[in-house]
Every structure is written in C-alpha cells, then in structure tokens.
Specification:
The chain is of the alpha/beta class. Helix content is 48%, strand content 14%. The chain binds BIS(adenosine)-5'-pentaphosphate (AP5). The site of BIS(adenosine)-5'-pentaphosphate has 36 residues, from helix 1, helix 2, helix 3, strand 6 and helix 9.
Length: 224
Amino acid sequence: MSARVVMLGAPGAGKGTQAKRIAELHGIPHISTGDIFRAHLERGTDLGQQVKPFLDAGHLVPDDLVCRIVVHRVREADCVNGYVLDGFPRSLPQAQALQRELNVEGAVLDVAINLAVPDDELVERLAARRSCPKCGRIYNLRFEPPRRNGYCDFEGEEDVALVQRPDDQESTVRERLVVYHRTTEPLLAFYRDTGLLRQVSGSGKSPEEVSAQIEEIFCALGVN
Ligand code: AP5
C-alpha cells in the first residue's frame, strides 16, 4: 500500500517534526522543500544563490522553480510507494502542479494534514528552535531540549553544536506568517473541497501526542 501525504501548517507548526516521524514509521521519504533549499545554500550552488534572497526575506521562492524541483524529486525511485511532502505545496499554483503530476503518474494523494497552532505560539517556538547541522534533528530549547545543552543527542562521541536558522529571527518569522496567511492558508479550502483535509491541533500537546493523532487519522483512512 502507498502513502502520499502533504503536511500543511504555518511556519513552526511542527510540519518537519511530524513529517520525519511519518517517514520513519511508514518507510517513505520525507521531502522538505525548505531542507532542499538550505542544503543548496550550504553547498553554495547556483540554486542556493538563486533562492537565498527569498529565504532571507521570509518570502516564497517562485512557484515555477519550486514545482520543477518537487516534480523531479517525486519521480525518483524511492518515491514509488509514496512520500511525505513538508512545506510543499504552499500556493494554489503549487497544489495544482502537484495534482497534475499525480494525474500523470496515475497516483492519488491520500491525505493533507493541517497542523493548527496560534501565531503567538509559533513566534515563541521558532525563537527557541535549534537543529543539528549533521543529522537534521530538530530541538526546541523550551519544549524539546537536547539532553546536553547546545549539543545534538544523536552524534555519539562527537560534539555537534546545534544551530539556529537565520530566518528564525523574530522580524523574519513575522513576515513568514504574513506570507503564510496570504498565500498558503487558502490551500486549506482547496484540500477541504477535495475531501483530503484533516485538521490536527498542534498546540498544547507534545510532539508524541500530535503524532498519535496523525497515526489515528492514517489508521481510519487505511493508510499504512
Ligand atoms: P521551510 O523550511 O519549509 O519553513 P516553514 O514552512 O516556515 O516551516 P518551519 O520549518 O519553520 O517549521 P515546521 O512547521 O517544520 O516546524 P518544526 O517541526 O521545525 O521553508 C523555509 C523557506 O524556504 C520559506 O520561508 C521559503 O522562503 C522557502 N520555501 C520552502 N518551501 C517553499 C515552497 N513550497 N514554495 C516557496 N518557497 C518555499 O517545529 C518548530 C519548532 O517547534 C521546533 O523547535 C520544534 O522542536 C517545536 N515543536 C514541534 N512540535 C511541537 C509541539 N507539539 N509542541 C511544542 N513545540 C513543538
């Protein structure tokens, strides 16, 4: 059986945290457009240079560029049994491009999960987010701290210092939220109309509790 999943939600809602768990539990790739861009930035590629001004400003990378990358990625061999898309689609043209690609493949999307969290909580969460530059694990100094202050729990003997994303500065987070409400939130209606939307409260619950709610939804839909 396959699982094609879209994670929706504002910046900091927990899409990456939950998408990683879904990918591990269901044995499907986690495709994060934000992670793809950050990897290019780090390697100093042409694509990295192209997307840098958008990421720095908290604005969306142009649709045609993002769509080309995602369409290419979902055609790779490891996606044959599905994938979890984190941070894509983020606009109506992106959702339509994904739908066209699914039609070409003769595949269907199983579910679009929206993680709902109030804006004030998002700003607070993102100020305290840290991640491991080596394994990508996400921490939160307030809600999910590492065992050893400032270092990743999962790098064995090696001390890998956690880092903060440049776009997690409060002014950039506020801009990302404006962009989210203007351009991405309308996708909730798009997926509600197609019967694929499932709402999950991502607030006041631990990541484990949110994950349990998502697994209940998968179970009810027969997604394994
Ligand atoms: P992207 O990397 O996708 O960022 P985002 O959507 O803004 O989302 P975040 O990664 O900030 O948050 P998240 O929801 O994954 O939350 P997380 O799990 O980390 O995109 C970055 C940029 O790339 C964009 O601004 C844009 O420029 C560009 N881009 C990317 N995709 C694009 C697209 N499709 N089109 C155009 N441009 C695109 O959790 C956040 C924090 O909360 C963590 O510290 C975590 O530990 C904590 N946390 C998680 N769950 C809980 C919980 N239940 N309780 C308390 N804390 C929790």
